[in-house]
């Protein structure tokens, strides 16, 4: 593709707005301070050091135990999600380095009903104290009174263990076709350059390329206007984890990136 002349479009900066149902996946506000805005928990939660590219802090959740606090989870309800919609949920996960034991800690997706009962599909786990990016996809099936939910699971023991799990950079992205008739989907490649991002398509398209930050906000949006290439400047954006989404022609596809 080096023989193709780049087509540079003016970057359209937009006021921060939420591009995904999940909010505050970074567990920090715009000033880098710890916050649990949007999240709910059962056992104790405080902050710890952030994951690579995840900002200043992560959430530290106490392991659940059957003789005390249970379950050790951090969860977020997603009232905007409709039955039949598919999403991919990802987060950096580890056992806290100061824990006395290493438990399987991970992620899950499912529903919570009006009585607070969870029906979950468990995803991958990490049983080390090293950061690992876990990811799973799920199609939400909602009965009347149900709400979609994503869950960060800190693990459980039969009795008090004295340990925690760390979570950071949680993202929720639409997967494929969410109730919209697919119309000739297009493949694309993403490149990170010294000047920003370049997205190349296999053919000229009318799509919108969006860049979403760790707080779930659209920080840039660029139309392709019958082009096979767009460039997005990342000047002024802080380093960390972002989601690039290509929206249009009946589908939404996404890719997670880390800016230096």
Report on the architecture of this protein.
With 260 residues, the protein is mainly β. The protein has a domain at 40-174: Galactose-binding domain-like (Jelly Rolls). It is built from no helices and 19 strands. It has strands at 40-41, 45-49, 57-62, 64-65, 73-78, 86-95, 105-112, 118-126, 132-139, 147-153, 156-157, 164-174, 188-192, 196-205, 208-212, 218-223, 227-233, 240-248, 251-259. The strands form 5 sheets. It has a 5-stranded antiparallel sheet with strand order 1-5-10-7-8, with no helix packed on it. Strands 2-3-12-6-9 form a 5-stranded antiparallel sheet, with no helix packed on it. Strands 16-15-18-19 form a 4-stranded antiparallel sheet, with no helix packed on it. A hairpin with a 5-residue loop joins β7 and β8. The radius of gyration is 19 Å and the shape is globular. The chain starts with 39 loop residues before the first strand and ends with a strand. The model is unreliable at 1-19 and 177-184 (pLDDT under 50).
Approximate strand percentage: over 45%
Number of DSSP-assigned strands: 19
- What structural class results from the helix and strand content? mainly beta
Order of helices and strands: EEEEEEEEEEEEEEEEEEE
- Low-confidence spans: 1-19, 177-184
Major β-sheet profile: 5 strands, antiparallel
- Helical run tally: 0
What is the CATH topology descriptor of one domain?
Jelly Rolls
Helix-residue proportion: under 10%
Cα-atom radius of gyration: 19 Å
Mean pLDDT: 82
